[in-house]
Amino acid sequence: MRAVEDSEAGFSYIETLIALLILASLSGSAVLFVSGAWAGSSESGERARDLRRILAAEHALRIAAGRIAPPFWLEGPRIDSHPGEYRIDFLDGKQRETLQLRLDSREAVLEIRIPGAATQHLPLPVGTRLTVDDEGVALTVPMADSVVPIRAHWPGRSIDHER
What pTM did the predictor assign? Predict the structure, then answer.
């Protein structure tokens, strides 16, 4: 067997230092990649949660608006408006039955009240606006870089009337 010389005994100090620098650089890149992916998934999760809330509010509004049926001789339902709250007559075609919609802008919660049913409390993103007119109800919901408009129309006219 041949004796090992000092120059072949192992890695030199410079070689070890370069290997450690490469390893540190790769570790730093991995940490940045993972933290960026983690932040991106957190933002995606928040956006998905907001979109689920918006879809739930849209579904509930469409169902509630679908129950408004003013008589055919009126232009639309009678709307009683207060700041942040609306009362719409002719729920299920009955003049004295009202649909109540209220948007609490401080908490960003839409409340839908229908007589004989549980009040629905639907959380929405802060800055959501609620408007009601003769044609229907609308929500304007702000998202990160856009606005989501939701519109639910009153479905039609009722030929029934109360005496």
Answer: 0.66
